[in-house]
Design brief:
Helices cover about 70% and strands about 0% of the residues. It is mainly alpha-helical and about 270 residues long.
Length: about 270
């Protein structure tokens, strides 16, 4: 097994799961407070005041996690000399075109991914943008008097609209897009545990991140000590095989993301111009 995610990355991921789960659990009854199920959930929490306090606590947890993540990125970039491999590059754009041709049978082999594929980067930036939007709009709603110094009443109402609809889009991205590809992938059923223990098998690393695997292999052969988990007796190269079920997962996820983005823009423009 090879270490893929360190303790800080796993802690950030866990904090994100906890904070977002609490935000959804407390936020949806607030959004739909006129519906019977929302009133029942509110009573279970002991009233609207408790529900709001839980929502605000989860918001603070999410903001803390965001600051933790930004500090971690700054640290590894400045002090560890590691590249920010999650950034989108021209290769990712070429990989999209290559992958689409592969999925429809126009190319014999899939693109070769490094540490992160373009799909993983898409996951990351959609979540990152969602978190920033939720925090910014949430602070406006939390402190409307102070926000009123910079925003008019229509501007604050727009933030309320964005906060509410972005929450639903965020929920769809996480529960369907991310979880579907990560945990319902036939290679990882019933659960992908990489983010929980931080380890990935050599077989999966070579299949899904062959360029990173090759770099680790070269580091080991050069003896520079960058990766002590690659041992000599377990470096045989295995041929990466096509997986029809894996292709179907990718196609469904791409179509899902297109639908979510389209629905989000449709909802926003409908509300703005209605």
């Amino acid at each position: 097994m090879i270490l893929r995610f360190d303790i800080h990355q796993r802690a950030q991921h866990l904090l994100l799961i906890i904070s977002v789960s609490l935000l959804f659990l407390s936020g949806l009854p607030i959004k739909y407070d006129h519906m019977d199920w929302a009133k029942q959930v509110t009573r279970l929490f002991g009233g609207f005041g408790n529900l709001l306090r839980i929502h605000q606590f989860a918001a603070l947890l999410l903001m803390g996690d965001a600051l933790y993540h930004l500090g971690y990125l700054l640290y590894i970039f400045r002090h560890k000399g590691r590249r920010l491999s999650m950034l989108i590059t021209l290769k990712d754009i070429r990989d999209v075109y290559h992958h689409l041709k592969y999925l429809i049978g126009k190319r014999p082999d899939p693109p070769q991914f490094g540490r992160y594929s373009y799909l993983e980067k898409l996951d990351y930036f959609m979540v990152a943008i969602g978190v920033l939007v939720m925090i910014a709009s949430g602070l406006v709603l939390w402190f409307p008097e102070r926000a009123g110094i910079l925003l008019s009443n229509p501007g604050i109402e727009l933030m309320r609209l964005i906060h509410s609809n972005e929450a639903l889009v965020f929920l769809l991205i996480i529960t369907i897009g991310h979880i579907f590809r990560i945990h319902l992938n036939p290679d990882f059923l019933p659960l992908n545990r990489t983010m929980y223990h931080g380890l990935i098998s050599r077989e999966h690393l070579q299949k899904y991140h062959p360029l990173e695997y090759q770099q680790l292999l070269e580091n080991y052969q050069e003896g520079d000590g960058h990766d002590e988990s690659l041992w000599p007796g377990d470096l045989q190269t295995k041929e990466t095989k096509k997986s029809l079920s894996g292709q179907i997962v990718v196609i469904i996820e791409l179509l899902f993301y297109l639908c979510v983005i389209g629905i989000a823009f449709l909802l926003l423009f409908t509300r703005l111009f209605s």
